[in-house]
Specification:
141 residues; mainly alpha; Recoverin, domain 1; two-stranded antiparallel sheet; binds calcium ion
Length: 141
């Protein structure tokens, strides 16, 4: 358990580092594809949103939202990922929407840093973004 501090530029640097971002997103995709069929189903995506805490950080949803309301939100988020509306999310759809979301998160954060409590094994992109920045700082130059 630790605390990371991130702001918009941390997140933007993470997203704009194409190779790093693709690697992170693809790794996340594989770990979310529980049944290994190469696409994310609605229930796989729901688990993803829960683990990434995107609803709290991006959509401003707090955890006291009633389950029916949450399901509606998850459905609408799923539709925004499923660009061709075929009922599943493929790696390209996932990557392109994650990029949009992370950039929106960056805009939302702006230059006001926020603190986030994270577990050591936290796989959220915000944690990765903070790690990347920390690595650059500690790497000198
Ligand atoms: Ca799957
Ligand atoms: Ca699709």
């Amino acid at each position: 358990m630790g605390v990371i501090i991130i702001d918009g530029s941390t997140v933007r640097a993470f997203v704009n580092d194409e190779a790093q971002f693709k690697t992170s997103v693809d790794a996340q995709f594989v770990s979310l594809d529980v049944n290994n069929d190469g696409v994310l189903s609605r229930s796989e995506m729901r688990k993803a949103f829960e683990s990434m805490r995107l609803l709290e950080t991006h959509f401003g949803v707090d955890t006291t939202v009633p389950p029916e309301e949450l399901t509606r939100i998850y459905d609408s988020v799923f539709r925004s990922f499923d660009e061709d509306q075929n009922g599943t999310v493929d790696p390209e759809e996932f990557r392109s929407e994650m990029k949009k979301i992370m950039l929106a998160v960056a805009d939302g954060l702006g230059s006001s840093p926020i603190q986030m409590a994270v577990e050591d094994d936290d796989q959220s992109f915000l944690k990765k973004a903070a790690d990347l920045e920390a690595a650059k700082i500690s790497g000198g130059s």
